[in-house]
Amino acid sequence: MAHDLILAGAGLANSLIAWRLRQVRPELDVICVDGRDSAASNHTWSFHDGDLDSAQRRWIEPLVTYRWPSYRVHFPQLSRTLHSGYASITGERFAEVMVPALGESLRLGHSIESLGPTQVRLEDGTVLEAKAVIDGRGARPSAHMVLGQQAFIGQVLRLERPHGLLAPVIMDARVDQGDGYRFAYVLPFSADTLLIEDTHYVDEHRASHEQLRDNIAVYARQQGWTIRDCLREEQGVLPITLAGDYNAFSVAFADQPTSGLRAGLFHCTTGYSLPEAVRLADWLARQSAFEAHLLAPALARYGQAHWQRQGFYRLLNRMLFLAGRPQDRWRVMQRFYTLPAPLIERFYAGQSHWQDRARILSGKPPVPVGQAIRAALRHSPRHFGTPS
Question: How far is it, in rounded angstroms, from Cα 45 to Cα 87?
């Protein structure tokens, strides 16, 4: 039996694709295959209200676990409240919605041995066929991309007493910086429960998990919080793109439709992937042809357009990572958060217009000018000694 579409991997992007197609294209025979035994994951995805349009916010609303009308940032010389909506989706809630919504089309516990544009071979020898297979099994290394890293460990903690936070703190850089830009990220889930992430923008992640856990414990003590229990822990290393050759990168999957991080669909500076996953799901729901030989080039063009829109953010990443001392990177972010709130909202949404870009780059830079110019010019992998 041939399906209309097989989604290889049941992560964020592919699960949203399957769910959106079930909502608006129920005539399609779509299955989502993953080797995991459970749809739940130790992960929290967040987004700003301005990252999505009103229709997109409506259709993902059942997934939203927590929502706040504002958020806070703290730096050594600046604290600010931004009155922009912020929302989070937990892995538990994601599974609670997806499992019943997708039903038998969600096939867990089936490890994939290999795949191609129209076929998936499982480790037990079963071969599944479809008009197209979309590979969404996570990011993959490429010699054609120059990456920094956003490494983090997060813990959901129950405290002895209420923490007193009324809004998330998405950056608290009043912490020891170490060998890169470090900040604490805090989401208040209830009066006495919160998520604390210790996050590092670094050239290469070197800190041990034990060190990151200790950092969380130290931060909690500094806030006057006493930890009763650690309810769960999540960790990850997200790619932060500095430069790349997208054409060379995409050759590896020229005939294979891809999605999510595997297709490079994320905000190059923040690492946020949920808004791009939502947009891709909407885009696929509007397609009329799902044959692999048509879908693969269409997705390649979609990815190329996203890559071009993200060029400004890669430039900023190079200035953040390559200009000035690593322990001074917080100064770049502190200056950014002095800018007007609408500009910051458009930045997170990946929709900075030319006036925003001029405003971000104008004035006295928080890094040495010469180093900033040299960093900006290193837009190709060959400027880093890697192939392009």
Answer: 8
Tokens matching residue 359: 């405003």
Nearest to 193 by CA among 228, 234, 221: 228
Q: 243 to each of 151, 254, 301, how far by Cα in Å?
A: 19, 20, 19
Q: In the numeric block, which tokens belong to residue 213?
A: 């856990």
What are the tokens at 46? 């967040």
149 with 139: CB under 8 angstroms?
A: no
Return the axis-axis angle of helices 12-24 and 274-285, rounded to nearest 10°.
Answer: 30
Element (H, E) at 48: strand 44-48
CA-CA distance, 98 to 146, in Å (whole number)?
34
In order, the DSSP letters of 143-171 are TTEEEEEEEEEEEEEEESS-----S-EEE
DSSP class per residue in 222-246: HTT--EEEEEEEEEEEEEEEEEE-H
How many Å separate Cα 372 from the centre of its chain? 26
CB atoms within 10 A of CB 210: 9
For the segment 292-313, what is each residue's pLDDT rounded down to a tens digit? 999 999 999 999 999 999 999 9
Write down the pTM of the prediction.
0.93
Domains of the chain by range and CATH?
2-66+87-141+244-309 (3.50.50.60), 145-241 (3.30.70.1990), 311-384 (no CATH)
Closest CA to 320 of 251, 376, 259, 377: 376
